[in-house]
Amino acid sequence: MFIQYFWVPTLYFFAFKIFGIIINMKRINYYFLLTVFVSINLHSQIATNSLFIETKSINPSIIGKRPVAVFSLTINEDRIKKDLDLSTGSFGTGAKENNIIDVKSASLFYGGKSGGFLTSEFTLKQAQGTKKVKVSSSTANFSSSNNVRNTYAQLGYGLGRFLGLSMGLLKYHYVFKVQNDYADFDNKSDTLVKMIKAGLNFKSLLNFGFYAEYDQIDTKLEQNSVSSEQKEKMKIIGGGIGFIQNKFHLQASYEKRLEPPPNPHGKKLKPARIIGTLEFAVSGITLGYTGNYYIDGFIDMENVLYKSLVYGSAMEEPRLEHTFNIAFGLSKGHTFSGSLSYSNIKAEESSGLFGDGIKYPAITKSIGVSLKYSYIF
Question: Are 207 and 48 in contact, with CB atoms under 8 Å apart?
Fold first, then answer.
């Protein structure tokens, strides 16, 4: 009972976070993830709970609907190699951009069992990543490196079965270096994000859920030894509708950022995310699909490190991420699992370094590996 109701030092991340397939079609990047023998955090819970008990709740009022308690520990690594042909840009024929990205993370998650007035959910995640970029052409050579690390923690409470509240912190350290014949600079930033969410849900034939989020973002910048500070506020609202029975779950939701920040290219941004989820269980196997459609750079704070390294300045492009999920197993006790993915994709993408909006032919190769321990009780 103590574990369920109070701060639990837990740290979790998707049992198989990334990777798959990035495809560009009609200005939408498609990202596929197939996970085997692992239940992952789909982050789709706004109107009702998931059939996958380890799924985190976007709407904190859903925390009070988990039928059993779960603790899990996950370690994960993703490696991505992306090559772009820049011949159609300003660098001329034969120009290329090579990206090497490595992301490592370790996380704990605890989700309490419903039944009382207070049901807790706690996430703690640490991640670090590097990105090395090299641009070569007949007229110029350019290289840069990014180093990022962050710590994310969130504690949420379900207040009964219909209300919820959560608080979170994100510490984010970013270093961007350029050292070559054409430029030499070193930019650093340290960001602290304080997050608070409140939500409610109710049932009237179907399940409905709504939440509001307020984030305070404080950033300290250092550009070539010149220091400055930035402060930003982010407000998000979201709502969803869903249907759930013992072996079937269907849900759709929409989230929107209010008062979006100014865009350096003069474009008026309307950051939003649309999520659709379908889950069902057959003969002891639970299957699920979740699609996340990101519009104008909608930010998921827990995964901001990965998204910023992979997409860079192309973050604002529309992007559709597909996740397929499968779980075998025990309803109680200890479980160990692992997953591996590989992809080799040809597409057209914008440069994550220049942000010029031009689509270039790209080849992305990625491999991801994850190991996970869970205890369900």
Answer: yes
DSSP code of 316? G
Q: 14 CB contacts (<8 Å, ≥6 apart)?
A: 40, 41, 74, 76, 370
What DSSP string runs through 106-149?
Answer: EEEEEEPPSSSSEEEEEEEEEEEEEEEEEEE-SS-EEEEEEEEE
Q: How far is 377 from 336, CA to CA, in rounded Å?
A: 15
Instruction: Tell me the C-alpha distance between 22 and 76, whole Å.
Output: 19
Residue 113 amino acid letter? K
**Nearest-angstrom CA–CA distance, 127 and 255:** 25
Cα 120 from Cα 3, distance rounded (Å): 8
Tokens 């190769």 belong to 365
Distance set, CA 335 to CA 14, 61, 328 (Å) = 15, 28, 10
Q: pLDDT averaged over the chain?
A: 80
Q: Which two tokens stand for residue 130?
A: 């590097």
Query: What's the rounded mean pLDDT across residues 363-376?
Result: 85
Taken as a whole, the chain contains a residue count of 377
**CATH class for the domain made up of 2-376:** mainly beta
84 and 362 Cβ atoms separated by less than 8 Å: yes
Tokens of 216: 């305070």
Maximum CA pair distance of the chain?
Answer: 68
Judge contact between 351 and 314, C-beta under 8 A: yes
Tell me how far CA of residue 97 lies from CA of 150, 175, 319, 364, 367, in angstroms. 27, 20, 21, 12, 20
* Domain ranges (residues) in the chain: 2-376
- pTM score, whole prediction: 0.80
Q: What's the rounded Cα separation, in Å, for the pair 171 and 126?
A: 10
Look at the block and give the residue holding tokens 């990047």.
29
Does 31 have pLDDT greater than 50? no
Stretch 292-299: mean pLDDT: 88
Beta bridge partners of 159: 118, 163
Give the C-alpha separation, 211 to 11, whole Å. Answer: 24
DSSP-derived pairing of the beta strands 319-328 and 28-34: parallel
Give the phi and the psi of residue 4 in degrees, each rounded to 5. -70, -35
pLDDT digits (tens, 9 = 90+) for 220-269: 998 877 899 999 999 999 999 999 988 899 999 999 999 877 666 667 88
Pair of tokens at residue 184: 């030499």
Q: Which residues contact 1 (CB under 8 A, 6 or more apart)?
A: none
